[in-house]
């Protein structure tokens, strides 16, 4: 994996479906803009690539594929995402915040049955983030939040699967650097304050 030597900083938000990541990405984006930062908010999978659009169909279970093949699609989408959006913004000195990155591939892919070492190798040529926020919420609470949204559940939005993914994320904390954990079972305001404090400590924001 490649360290970020560009002018900008690359920050990633990770966690289970229903952990509150996407809400906090928007909130912290507003906070940073108000502080005068030039930021780019983005997410994975994208809907900008053919691979990203195929992933969406698999997640809503319109089509089926093997676990490793699904993660190969994520890597293909990620490559385009980095080349077209993330790296150009970092070169310009912008602060890029991504809702999910290759740690989702490691956690969800291995929980789904793919080999973790293969998944790491698949993503070994990609940029490594400066800071990773991992939202820690129990699978039960995540599922309650997902159910409150209404609508059909996606491929991974089942309690047994979310519990496996949660354990996989715990393993990543021991293996990879730049992780900061967030107690995301607290209120939205308290979660936001945790993130702000970490940004101040780690990036002098």
Quickly give the CATH architecture: 3-Layer(aba) Sandwich
For the record, give the distance between the C-alpha atoms at the N and C termini, rounded to a whole number: 26 Å
Number of domains: 1
The first-level CATH class name: Alpha Beta
The main sheet comes to: 5 strands, parallel
CATH T-level fold name: Rossmann fold
Query: CATH superfamily, called what?
Result: P-loop containing nucleotide triphosphate hydrolases
Poorly predicted spans: none
Helical coverage, percent range: 40-55%
Counted by DSSP, the helix tally is 8
Supply Rg: 16 Å
| Strand order in the sheet with the most strands | 2-3-1-4-5
User: What is the overall pLDDT average?
Assistant: 91
Please report the total strand number as a whole number.
5
Tell me the β content. Answer: 5-15%
| Secondary-structure element order, N to C | EHEHHEHHEHHEH
The secondary-structure class comes to alpha/beta
Shape: globular
Write structural notes for this entry.
54% of the residues lie in helices and 13% in strands. By secondary structure, the protein is α/β, with parallel strands linked by helices. It has one domain: P-loop containing nucleotide triphosphate hydrolases (Rossmann fold), CATH 3.40.50. The chain has a five-stranded parallel β-sheet with strand order 2-3-1-4-5, with helices on both faces. Helix 2 packs across helix 3, helix 4 (102-112) crosses helix 7 and helix 6 (139-149) packs across helix 7 (159-175). It starts with 9 loop residues before the first strand and ends with a helix.
């Amino acid at each position: 994996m490649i360290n970020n030597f560009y002018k900008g900083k690359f920050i990633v938000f990770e966690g289970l479906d229903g952990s509150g990541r996407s809400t906090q990405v928007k909130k912290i984006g507003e906070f940073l803009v108000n502080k005068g930062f030039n930021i780019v908010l983005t997410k994975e999978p994208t809907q900008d690539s053919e691979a990203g659009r195929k992933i969406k169909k698999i997640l809503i279970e319109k089509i089926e594929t093997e676990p490793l093949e699904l993660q190969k699609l994520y890597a293909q989408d990620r490559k385009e995402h980095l080349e077209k959006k993330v790296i150009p913004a970092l070169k310009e000195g912008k602060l890029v915040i991504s809702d999910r990155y290759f740690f989702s591939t490691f956690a969800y892919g291995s929980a789904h049955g793919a080999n973790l070492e293969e998944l790491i190798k698949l993503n070994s040529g990609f940029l490594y983030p400066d800071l990773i926020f991992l939202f820690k919420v129990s699978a039960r609470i995540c599922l309650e939040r997902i159910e409150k949204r209404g609508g059909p559940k996606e491929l991974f939005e089942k309690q047994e699967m979310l519990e496996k993914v949660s354990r996989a994320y715990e393993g990543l904390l021991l293996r990879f650097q730049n992780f900061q954990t967030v107690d995301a079972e607290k209120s939205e305001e308290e979660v936001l304050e945790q993130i702000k404090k970490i940004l101040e400590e780690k990036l002098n924001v």
